[in-house]
What we know:
TIM Barrel, alpha/beta, globular, 7 helices
Amino acid sequence: MAENAVILEREQLSLKVNEIFYSIQGEGSYALYPCVFIRLTGCNLRCVWCDTTYSFFEGQPQTLDQILIAATAYPTQLVEITGGEPLLQKNVYPLFDMLHTAKKKVLIETSGSILIDRVPGFVHIVLDIKAPDSGEADKNRYENLKWIKPADDIKIVVASKADFEFALEVEQKYALTQKMERPVIIQPAFGQLESAEVGEWVKNAGVPFRLGLQLHKFIYEPTLRAV
């Protein structure tokens, strides 16, 4: 009876989904691997340079079983849950478990404005820290750095030299070089800074930052959705 009750409960759970698609991962430690993306609807931030504003409101409810079927239909082990801000929806937590049980490598991209303390250890977290030019730097929850795992990714999108100086200050204040297995990703806001310019900043920073590019926007036409 207990097992049947769990199955029934799972069938009743749902998430509001913006889109599910299969593409090439463009960012972070798993860049250039084939990946299924589950983009959930809703975001509590309004970053100036956001390229997925359509995810703020567009979407339809899907049961967790429907999402699992869609996410496991493709020949890859990599699945990223993104948004918007996927941690806004509480049913994302049982979805983590379902994908893990299905032997998927689960990633989540989160804005850093919501605590990650409930995210399971098997999930690879891509944690954003918002720089001032995003307009949302006051929403950063720095206590998340207590829960970030050394193998996870920390990313800071920069739209100006001032944003880069902010990234340097954060790295030094929280000793991220000592904490993380891989350096903090410095990612230029697409269309606002030249990657070569930011690359020079990274080269001369004196700390082991790594340059991050949205590679899917170089592989595909950058205004396309679901790529």
